[in-house]
From TrEMBL:
Residues in coiled coil: none
Identification of the protein by name: VOC family protein
CDD domains, per the entry: VOC_like
Domain VOC, first and last residues per copy: 1-122
InterPro entries per record: Glyas_Bleomycin-R_OHBP_Dase (IPR029068), Glyas_Fos-R_dOase_dom (IPR004360), VOC_core (IPR037523)
Membrane spanning stretches: none
PROSITE patterns: VOC (PS51819)
Superkingdom to which the source organism belongs: Bacteria
Source organism per UniProt: Brevundimonas kwangchunensis
Pfam families: Glyoxalase
């Protein structure tokens, strides 16, 4: 199951305005927006959890990523190990990412096409 997709965009204000209006009929709204310096991250979701994220952190396409939802932290660990064995490059060992949420346990790898692939578990413990 997919957890979320993240895209970098060249004009965050224009992209935010477009997606806010275009996705509204589908039930999407902005659930969180973070600005640090020149970087803005806008998270959209149907409920309270984001599943579509845009940012102006990197050049478009450079940091595009897809996150797969795991049911357990052990699955995240196993994903990371299997991805490295399959030739992926480590982009973040399994662990908690409190900046994304108190139970956000994830691992990241760069696949053969250069995209960031993530597995994330939102369950406590």
């Amino acid at each position: 199951m997919l957890d979320h997709i993240g895209l970098d965009v060249p004009d965050i204000a224009a992209s935010r305005a477009f997606h806010e209006r275009a996705l509204k009929p589908l039930g999407y709204r902005i659930v969180q927006e973070i600005t640090e310096g020149k970087t803005t991250v806008v998270m959209f979701g149907v409920g309270d959890e984001p599943d579509f994220v845009i940012s102006n952190k990197d050049r478009p396409g450079e940091a595009a990523h897809i996150a797969f939802r795991a049911e357990t932290r052990a699955q995240v660990d196993a994903f990371h190990a299997a991805a490295l064995e399959a030739g992926g490059t480590d982009n973040g060992a399994p662990g908690l990412r409190p900046e994304y949420g108190p139970n956000y346990y994830a691992a990241f790898v760069i696949g053969p096409d250069g995209f960031n692939v993530e597995a994330v578990c939102h369950a406590a413990g």
